[in-house]
Amino acid sequence: MKIVFDFGAVLFHWHPPSFLARVWAHRVPDEIEGAEIAKHFFQAYSGDWGAFDQGLIDAPTTADRIHARTGWPREEIVAVMDAVPSELKLIEGTAALIRELKAQGHTLHFLSNMPEPYADYLEQTFPLKEWFVSGVFSGRVKQSKPSKAIFDLALAQFGAKADELLFLDDHPANIAAAKELGWHTHLFTTPELARQDLVRRALLPA
After folding, report:
1. Is residue 205 in a domain?
2. Is 206 among the domain residues?
3. CB atoms within 10 A of CB 111
4. Domain count, the chain
5. Whole-model pTM?
6. Cα distance between residue 74 and residue 162, in whole Å
């Protein structure tokens, strides 16, 4: 069994409500307001941000579109976008899980919706090539989850059949899409629960 990791909120911390409350405090006083603002800024990873995720538009164009759509000052939008890498901190429990899986001889890949600038940052900052045999970033293949196209690209990249893969992702829509295509799946919430599932599947020792 080859194991495929999502990145945001699985291997790297990503929580838009608290992120916006931290970096945009004059507009977002708390996480409750942050959740509402996030709907307009990130558009549930569709719209402008979805196009950025897929590498169909660059960061300046994304900022232009968010400004035109919301009326927020463009320089503030750029500041938020520039702050995203600081939010992508390693989830240590997942990193420990990756090290344990590798020690057990498992092959690991990744499949992440990630704009190119942030993909570049992750590659430059973390030992992705040490942890993963290969991976797919949405911004580089011009497709994003949960579309069938990106799963097909991933299968080709990983050199595997669908039923040979276990996919860990935190978004139910992505899990549903993978399951429909025959992948084994785990809806990620915490590293601890993920490990329990891996033990149940006999992929890790108890």
Report:
1. no
2. no
3. 27
4. 2
5. 0.96
6. 43
